[in-house]
Amino acid sequence: MCRRTPMRTTMREAPPETPTERGANPLAATLPGWRINGAALVVAGFLSGLGAATAVALHIPAVGLALIVASRSLVLMARHLVSVSASGASDFLDTLLGWIVFAGMGFAFALADPERALAACFLVASFVGLSASAVDLHVSSSPHGSLAAKESQRRREKTIIDATITVALVIACLWSARFSVVAYVLGTLCFSATGIRIARCIDVSP
User: How many CB atoms lie within 10 A of CB 70?
Assistant: First the structure.
């Protein structure tokens, strides 16, 4: 007689979760499933920003306030996707279209009230200088520091600058009569930031 050997059942253990999977943001997992990329969100934010500028020029600052907040929210979502997918195209569009929106908002306040034109020109000029200084041509050529560290610093500065400008535009929409004060203060900060970037680009080493 032959003995029946009991069959052993082996259970496969699930592979442990990686730190990336454990810490994944639900937004990062959801949006790619919807086939939405960062560039599409940046363009949507740009169109919303143009709508905000149009509303301000038409003396509807409350609508402009809502649209500029929506615009920057879409851009923040796009930046999250860029950090996940490492898409350079979205990052370029974010920078380019963002400065167009900021300059357009300053121009819109001047259209709404020509008496604000001087303050608006000062603000837009400061945006031009700051946006031009954002072209970090010295990053790849500078021998000091790693490229990754400089890129991290650039992104951090970009976030701070965009947040500061957005808060200032929100204040301007809430108190349109004080736009000139906001424009001069914000413009001075932007010119100061531009000067710091220029000084940092100058190679003073022997």
Answer: 16
- How many of the other CB atoms lie within 10 Å of CB of 38? 24
Grouping H, G, I as helix, E, B as strand and the rest as coil, residue 7 is coil
Q: E-strand spans in the chain?
A: none
Question: Quick one: pLDDT at residue 140?
Answer: 44
Report, as ranges of residue numbers, the positions in the chain whose pLDDT lies below 50: 1-2, 7, 9-34, 84-86, 137-144, 204-206
Contact 37, 90 (CB under 8 A): yes
Handedness of CA 111, 114, 120, 125 (dihedral sign): positive
Contact 79, 191 (CB under 8 A): no
- Between CA 141 and CA 145 the distance in angstroms is 11
The CA dihedral of 101, 86, 25, 163, to the nearest 10 degrees, is -30
**Tokens 């253990």, residue located:** 13
Length of the chain: 206
Average pLDDT, the chain: 77
